[in-house]
Amino acid sequence: MSAPILEMDIDPVWGDAIDWEDIASRAAEAAAKVAPELAHENLLVSVVLADDDEVHALNKQWRAKDKPTNVLSFPMLSREEVLHAAADEGAPGMLGDMILAHGVCTREAAEKGVSVETHATHLVVHGLLHLAGYDHELGEAEAEEMENLERKALALMGIADPYAVED
């Protein structure tokens, strides 16, 4: 299965006990199975596993939010360009950048009762969908569409629905 090429930059705070590159690659493959526009090796994504300070600074600069967030996505292509990228046989096109915050990811994983690996996998899928032009902040229908794609991608990896409401 084709998926975007991932260029990884991993801050030491993430540690080396876990193969983060493998986790991101598997997440990209699953995302490409549910969002075919991502199923192309001529798309390039920069994935940065950063500390909270770096994500905080970027979130403040680009979104005017003075706090870290779990994942930031910076698309380089419009939705239309993503859809047409598959036809381009040339050099890889830059789909965009994705940055995950270690501390936020770790805290959220603990709150959800899942491993950091599981939550990071979800965030990579989520970020890739943003880079492909999906946006849950545009409205309820868009949020539902994006969440359904996330659920399907995660299910392919044996990961439970992150949006399930527990009683």
How many structural domains in the coordinates? 1
Would you report the number of β strands? 4
Q: Would you tell me the overall average pLDDT?
A: 89
Could you state the CATH homologous superfamily? Metalloproteases ("zincins"), catalytic domain
Q: What's the Cα radius of gyration?
A: 15 Å
Low-confidence sequence ranges: none
SS strand fraction: 15-25%
Shape: globular
Name of the CATH architecture: 3-Layer(aba) Sandwich
- Secondary structure class reads alpha/beta
Number of helices: 6
Helix amount, in percent? 40-55%
> Which CATH class?
Alpha Beta
Report how far apart the termini are.
37 Å
Biggest beta sheet summary: 4 strands, mixed
Predict the CATH topology.
Collagenase (Catalytic Domain)
**Strand and helix order:** EHEHEHEHHH
* Spatial order of the strands forming the largest sheet: 1-2-4-3
Description:
The chain has 167 residues and is an alpha/beta fold. It has a single domain (5-156), classed as 3-Layer(aba) Sandwich (Collagenase (Catalytic Domain)). The protein contains 6 helices and 4 strands, in the order E-H-E-H-E-H-E-H-H-H. It has helices spanning 20-34, 52-63, 79-85, 102-112, 116-131, 140-156, and strands at residues 5-10, 43-50, 71-75, 93-101. A 4-stranded mixed sheet has the order 1-2-4-3, sandwiched between helices. Helix 1 (20-34) links the parallel strand 1 and strand 2 (43-50).
Show the helix and strand layout.
Blueprint: E1 5-10, H1 20-34, E2 43-50, H2 52-63, E3 71-75, H3 79-85, E4 93-101, H4 102-112, H5 116-131, H6 140-156
Parallel strand pairs: 1-2, 2-4
Antiparallel strand pairs: 3-4
Helix pairs in contact: 1-5, 1-6, 4-5, 5-6
